[in-house]
Amino acid sequence: MNPYRGEQQGFVPESSGLFGGYEAIQSFNKGLWLPMPKRKMNFVPMIVCSLVPWALFVLVYSLMAFQFHYSQPTLCNIVVFVLLFFVLVIGVKAGSVLSWHLHERTMICHTRH
Known about the structure:
Blueprint: H1 13-16, H2 22-29, H3 43-65, H4 67-71, H5 73-112
């Protein structure tokens, strides 16, 4: 299933008639406040994307603000840089996945023409 080709959730553009013709005009005349089909939302990634950055911020802020920073400054800085390295690794992996998806999308667009 490729979402870039319109195959997601059973949407096939050729059979819907919304790219012109009489069916497209009828669909616009129905009004704006029609009930939309419900989309299933996955709450676990939403919670993880909210709580992990917050927990990381709280951890780094508490390390740098409380007694540990003043009693063990070298160890505190090492822990903060390890956490920074962890964040940078995740960012690089996310960037590589994004560039791979964009490359795949452009390859699909170039093969259609």
